[in-house]
Amino acid sequence: MRVPASPAALPDTHAPAAPAGLPGWDPAWSRLVTVRTFDGDRTLHVLDTGDVLAEAGLRPDGIILAVHGNPTWSYLWRSLAAATLDAARSGDGPVWRVVAPDQLDMGFSERLAHGRLPRPSAAGTAPLDDDAGYRTLGGRIADLDALVTTLGLDAAARSGQSLLTLGHDWGGVVSLGWAGRNQDLVDGAMTLNTAVHRDPAEPLPAPLRAALAGPLLPGSTVATDAFLKVTTSLGNPPLDSGVRAAYHLPYRSADRRGGIGGFVADIPVGPAHGSHEELQRVSRDLAVFQKPALILWGPQDPVFLDRYLADLLERLPQADLHRFETAGHLLAEDVDIAGPILRWARGVLDPSAVPAPVERDGDYRPLWSFLDVWRQEPATALVDMAGASRPPVSWSRLAGVVDAMAVGLVRLGVRPGDRVSMMVTPGLDLTAALYACLRIGAVVVVADAGLGVPGMTRAVRAARPDWIIGMTPGLTVARAQGWPGRRISVSTLPAPLAAALRVEDSLYRMAAAHAGRRYADGDAGPVHEPAADDPAAVLYTSGSTGPAKGVVYTHGRLSALSGLLRDVFDVRPGSSLLAGFAPFALLGPAIGATSITPDMSVTRPATLTATAVAEAAAAGRATILFASPAALRNVVATADRLRPDQRSVLGRIDLVLSAGAPVHPRLVAQVARIFPAAEIHSPYGMTEALLLTDIDRPTIEHLAAPTRDGTQDGVCVGRPVGPVRIAIAPLRDDGSAADDLLEGPAATGRIGEVVVSAPHQKAGYDRLWLTDALSRRDTRDGLQWHRTQDVGHLDAEGRLWIEGRLQHVVTTPAGPVAPGGPEARIDALDAVLRSAVVGVGPHGTQAVVAVVEAAGNPDRGRVRPGLAPTDLAAEVRAAALPVPVAAVLVTDTVPVDIRHNSKVDRSRLARWADGVLAGGRVGTP
Question: pTM, whole model, 2 decimals?
Fold first, then answer.
C-alpha cells in the first residue's frame, strides 16, 4: 500500500512515512508492509521499486533484498534503487527490483514499546526481546523472513526470478544469516562492511567498547544522538549536510532512538551474551554457503576491521572481493556501489556473460627448474654487490640453500597457497627466499619499499599475508604497524630482539639446519608441485597513478615471462644480467643467467652510479644491463668518475635494456657513449605485463622529432614482442574507450586506449574484483585482454605510440584530446624543461591548458609561477598546434613520480590550473 503523506499523523509506535524532499529519495519507492512475525503483526517501512517497475510495464528478472545496519535506514540504498531503475528504463541489462526494509524499531518502521532504555546487565549480557522489548539478532532474521513471505519474494524466486541478498553493518549479519538458511531461494549474497564472527580473545573495536561502557550505552545511543552523529561523521568524503540530515530524520527524539540503543546492546560481547549462539549459527551457516558471493569493503572503517574481512573470506572462499582503499564505514556513501553490484549481479544471472579465461600454459617450465638442472654446476649464479658485498654464489650452492630453506619453511608450517610477504632487499637473500617459497607453492607478496610506510601498510593489509619474511628494519615496521602474518627473519636474531619482533625462526638457521636435504625427495613431507595456473606471486604496482594495486601472477605466466626474456633479448644460460631494476633481478635463475645486484637503493633508482655499475659488471662479468631511465640518468651524471679500467669493463656490455618509462633520445646518446659496444633497447610494459613492446636506439633517434600530422604524437615505444598482441579501443567523444577492439590496419592512426593480450600478463588484480573486471576484455575463445589505461595509437609500421593516460584525456567541445601529442611538441622547445597538458572546466566542454616548467634564460630572467609571459605563451601555443591551447601557465616544477621520474601528475596540475585561472592563490602544484 502507498504511504500516507505526513509522518506526524501516526503514533510513535507505528510506522510513519519517509517524507518527500530527501536528497536522492523518491517517495514512490516508499510503502508500509504489515508482516506476521514471531511476536505478532508488525509494520515495516520498505523501500520497494516494484510498483515503479510495474507502472513502467517492466517485469523484474531478479530481486535485490537489501538490509541496512545501525543507525542507518533504507535511505542507505537510494543510489542502488535509482541505478536499477535507470538501467531498467534504458534496457541496459537485467531488470532488478530493489526491496530494502527499515528494520523494526529503525528508520520509519514501527517502534517497539521499550520498558526501559537498553543497557547491559551486571554480567555484561544484553537483554532479550521479552526482557527489554527490543530485537535481538534472531528476531531480526525472523522479521526479514516474514517480510520475504509477505511480499511473495520466496514465490518469485521459486518461479525463476533471481534473488540476491545485500547487507551492511549489522544488517550484513541479518542478510547473510537469512541467506545461509535459505540457499534454496537465493542465487547469491552480497555484503558491505560487516562481521559474522567475533573471537572472544580479540577486543571489540574501540568505538563499540566506548558505546557499551556501562551507563554510556543509553546515554550515547538513546538519550542523545551522539552515536548517530559519530556514525554519520564517518563519510569519506564527509556527507553533504542534506544527506546527513536525512539519516538523522527518523531519530529526532529519544523515543524514536530505542532501536539504536537496542542494536548496540545486542552486540555479542562474549559467550554469555543472549545473541552469541545466534551469531555462531550465522557464521556456521555461512561456512557451508555454496552460492556466489560479493564483498565490497571500505578499509578505513574503525569498527569493521580487516580481521573481520579475513574471517568472511575464510567462510566464503568463493567470494569476489573489492577493497575501496580510501573508503570507510559508510561505503555506500563514499563510493559508487551500484555500478559494481549491477555488474556482479548480471554475472550471477547469466554466468556466460563473463567468459572464463583460459590459462595458456604452453611449455610451462617452473621457475626453479634450472636449479635442479644445474645442481652440480660450479659456475656463478648470483653476485650481490649491495651494501656489504658477499662472495659470488655458485649454482650448486644456490640450489642447496633454496632446498634447505624450502624444507625449513614447510617444517615451520608454511603450506601451499600461504601468502608470504617479502620484506627483503634484492640480492642473495631475497632470491633464495623467493625461490624456496615458489618451490613449495607459497604465494610471494612483494610491496616495494618505495611506497613508503603508509603505502606498504595499505598493501600488506590488503594482501593479508600468512607469513612475513624480513630483515630487521622491515620486521620492526611490521611490528609497529601491526601487520598480519607470522614472522620469519632473514638472519638469526638475538633472542630478546626476536621475541620483541615476534620472530619464530630465521632463514639462515633453516639453511644451516637442513643443509643437504632436498625438498623434492620428501625431506619435509609430501612434495607439492605447483601447476601452471596456481598463483605464484602478488606484485604491487608503484602507486604512481593511485593506490598501489596487487597484481596476481600464476606460475605459468611467470614462466612465460622468463621465456620471453630468453627468446626476445637472447638472455640465455651463461648470460650475465646486471639488474638495476628489481623485477628482472629475480628472473635470472629462471633462465640460467648469472644475476648481479649492484650497490644501490632499490627504492631510489637514481642512486645507481657509473662506478657501482662498473664494479658489479667486473665482479659478475656482466653482458647485459637492465636499468630504469632514472638510474641511467645518474649513471650518465657520474660517468666522469670512472677509471680507465672501469670504462673498459663497461665496454664489454653488449646489451642495455631500460624499462619503466620512455627513454629520451638525448639520454640514449649519452648512454651509448658509456657502453659503446651495447645495443640499447627500451621495452614498454607495466607491472601487469612487464614486457609488451621494444624499441631500439636507431628507431628512437629516427623518430625523435615530433610532427603535426598525428602520426608521431606522443612517445614511440616500438613494436609488440614475441606473442604479444596489441589492439586499440577508440576514444568516444566523452573521452571513454569504446568496447570495440581494433587490430592491424584497422587500428592504424586511431587514437584510443591501448589493450594488450599476452601469455605473460597478469592473471588478475588481488582482492580488487571491480578493478579486475573493468580492466579485462575477455573473448569467448578464452583469450584475455588487459586494458592498460594508456592512450595511444599504432602507426603504419605497427609501432605503438603512447599519448598519456585515459583519465587525463581532455574532453573539449570539438572532441577528446590526448595530452601526449602536444606535450611532445612543447617539450621540444628550448624554453621548456617539461610540460603537461590538462583540461579545465566541466567534462565535455573542457579548455586545453598547458602547464610548463620553464628552462632558465638569461635574457628573460626567472619566470614567475602563474600566467606565462606573452612571448613564452605564444611559443607554446604555436608548438601545440593543431591542438588549440586556451591558456599557458608556468610552474616551478611539473610534479612527477620519484620512482620513474617521468609519470606526470596531470590530475594534480589540473586542480592547480583550475584554481589559478579562477583567481586563486598561485602557490605550488
Answer: 0.90
